[in-house]
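We emphasize that the prediction below concerns an isolated chain of 156 residues; any contacts that depend on oligomerization or on bound cofactors are therefore not represented. The input was used exactly as deposited, without trimming of termini.
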Amino acid sequence: MKFLIEAGSAIETLTPAELRSEIAKAQAVWEARAIGVKWTEQGPLPVQPAGPSQQVNGPATGFAWKLRVASVNLAAAGTLAVFKGESPAGRPIANPVASTAFAFGGVTYNIASLFFPDDIVIQSGQQILLAATQNISTYYYGAVQFPAQKAGEILS
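Result of the prediction step, given as a token string:
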């Protein structure tokens, strides 16, 4: 289609059929990228016995996670750090965060939550260590799970 602009120039635009065709192509590409991608979460789960750390197994074979949130309920006010691997010997994957106390139903909870805006990728076989300065009574995590072979597409 062509339109006349008052300045005398002509521009060409897509016809409605061409626009529908381009949108359908783009939608097919996005749908193909989304196959196998889903939200996964666990918790809140009790820690038995309660202790200052909790090991979380990573994704199943053939999958990877983009970790988005980790949260714990602590026995008393404290801090939470999250590490990749089995030991807090390394640097945490985010700055440690202090818990916030709030009361509900006559019970006081000390919740510490970390949100990960960056691409914290956990591969199959890797673990996450939730380490706190107080005993952890329950924990929760949420991540985007995707097929490992799509890592290049998902992380770009």
